[in-house]
Design goal:
Domain SHSP: 23-135
Organism: Streptomyces odorifer
Strand order of the largest sheet: 1-6-5-4
Protein name: Hsp20/alpha crystallin family protein
Order of helices and strands: HEEEEEEEE
InterPro entries: A-crystallin/Hsp20_dom (IPR002068), HSP20-like_chaperone (IPR008978), Small_HSP (IPR031107)
Shape: elongated
Helix content: under 10%
Family: Belongs to the small heat shock protein (HSP20) family.
CATH topology of the domain at 20-71 and 85-123: Immunoglobulin-like
Length: 143
């Protein structure tokens, strides 16, 4: 029996897996950028089309977890979708934060589809100068 194989079938399967909507048990990764601005770390996540109410940010010990869900737009009965390329589902990202960051002072802003977290460096971890003092005079002990 002669079997015909399609070399692109496996590529199609992988592409479907990568573009399939994420679920709460298997979320899709979200793109991010991270940089340091002075004494603050800034982490930005692309979440276009996500309702701010659908974003969860948790910090447990030094693990930062950002989870968001993009739901399909409410379609009316007489609307038939012709093209649907924008990814839907659950997106998630976890970052291990250094002990030098002040996780009690994290600030989150969402604007134009970008979630921006600002995480300050803890005071105890900031660079500081130690002043060198003059030696104290020594008293001699007589006995």
């Amino acid at each position: 029996m002669l079997m015909r194989t399609d070399p692109f079938r496996e590529f199609d399967r992988i592409a479907r897996e990568l573009t399939a909507p994420g679920t709460w048990s298997r979320p899709t990764a979200m793109p991010m950028d991270a940089c340091r601005e002075g004494d603050t770390y800034v982490v930005s996540f692309d979440l276009p089309g996500v309702d701010p109410e659908a974003i969860e940010i948790d910090i447990e010990r030094n693990m930062l977890t950002v989870k968001a869900e993009r739901r399909p737009a409410g379609n009316a009965e007489n609307v038939r979708m012709e093209v649907a390329e924008r990814p839907l589902g659950v997106f998630s990202r976890q970052l291990v934060l250094a002990d030098t960051l002040d996780t009690d002072q994290v600030r989150a802003d969402y604007d134009a589809g970008v979630l921006t977290l600002r995480i300050p460096i803890a005071e105890r971890a900031k660079r500081r100068r130690v002043k060198v003092g003059q030696g104290e005079s020594r008293q001699q002990i007589t006995g």
